[in-house]
Please model this.
Amino acid sequence: MRLTWRDAVATGLVAGAVALFGAHLAGAHLPGLGAVRPIAAVVVALGLGACIVGAQRIDAVGPGYGRWMGVLGGAAVVTALTAVFGGFEIALWALTATTVGLWVTATVRHAFAAPAAVPPVLTTGISDRDLHDLIDKERSARR
Model:
């Protein structure tokens, strides 16, 4: 496969999360972001945005990749809850690390994995008109 615009947007969102975390570590005083909790909330939002934008079809991934991303995602949820509700700086570290780990894993997979096979329904040769007729018949039968 190759990287797409979705990967570029996800990269920008994760870079924003890392930059915000770095600014916090450097002692920058950003308006409204002076404590761990609001910074963690923004990191969570940026990470979720990267996940949503960069996501691909779930049926196109293998079970090993799915398990690994599930473990990292679960760790991200636990650290997010701990950082947002507990306000612990170590949890913010872990949240940022798991967010970066999820992004790296997904981006490497997107860059090097073989393209997913086209689903059989797309190769059957059904015309658009036939498909619309079939849908109309289904709708009529339900009424």
